[in-house]
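Q: Sequence in, structure out?
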Amino acid sequence: MSNTIVALSTARGKSAIAVVRMSGDGALDVAKKVFSPMPEQPNFLKVGNLQTANFVEHAMCVWFKAPHSYTGEDMVEFHCHGGLAVVQAVIEACLANGAVPAQNGEFSKRAFINGKQNLTNAEGIIEMIEAETVSAAKAGANLLENKLGKKIVALQDELLDLVSAGEVPLDYPEEDVELPTIAQIKHTLAEIGDKLDQLIRTSTLGKVARYGIDVAIVGAPNVGKSSLLNALLNEDRAIVSDICGTTRDTLKESVGYKDIKFNFVDTAGIRKTDNTIEQEGIKRAIAAANSADVVLNVTDNPADRTVFPTVKPQIRVFNKCDLFAEMPCCDDSLVISAKSGDVEIVKQTLYDMFCAGDIQGADVLVTNERHLSCLKQARLRVDEALAAAETTTLDIVISATKQAWETLGEITGTQASEDIIDRIYSKFCLGK
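A: Exactly. Output:
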């Protein structure tokens, strides 16, 4: 018998309506003690009165009958006024009548335990809550809809078929069971490896969808880096001055563009200087560039061909074109005027560079580092099985194949440790 847990399910703070959620075998009993009249049947909202210690709250109540609920248990929700004092009073009334406080992610963890979701579903919920762009929300929705989970289960089934075909003759040699040929085993493993590679390759777009593109704006002092940042953000965020060394530290700001976001970092002007503070700013500028996905190398001199010392891809940006009566030849540069705000070409170039794979058209994107790590590990196990098929006995091949199956199971949770499960659900907010 499970404890009845209670928590605020909506965001904490002043709001018109808040939702207080309970789940557990005794949820309905607790609700009957504090709310009347109770709904006569599940899945229907009922207007009534909720008795707290000091006042009566005019609220609504709905109950969901197990197993047809989010957690798979009996659940009750109170829809009440969203004031902090009201919410706290409603929760305390539930606690006084037998409920206990929920832990972070406990509702969703119970859903997992009761077979209502797998770990990919759970991580999809997290991504939906954290989504700041359409692409991030879609990627989270696909996880929530188990699109990745279905692909993983299908791969596991193929691996398990291979393991079974190899283990039966090994375990029961007296039975007249035909062993799969080495050629058949290699063919199947190669196909599984290709499917894993396809999923792994989506992680590039997946990272963009979930986190956006990290862009470092670098260049010499006074070339218009801060002005460019302001133009890209369409607001005066960075201080702009003709004085060299105005920007001493990195300034990070994000802005949405189409279905993704750009994470811009304005940096200190790079030059030789004896100023200790400015030197530190330059050091941070170099670090920001090296950790970015792409570097905007800004100049106001069309003859400047300085290459910033980084392995990251660079886009040369010629700024202050408005100061030239006749446009110089800049075939290798994006020509802009940050002062006029005409910087659409910069955003579009960045978008085309990273999103040419049609981020919205993708059915499944790997957006989660844990998933990517498991996929790569499974791919290694498949490679080991393929190598073993060339040089060693069938049992070694089957062992590596089974390890690949187990590794994929960590993604959906069928083979995940308790520590991994706890770590995932601890990231949830209190009432989810």
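The first strand starts at residue 5 and ends at 8.
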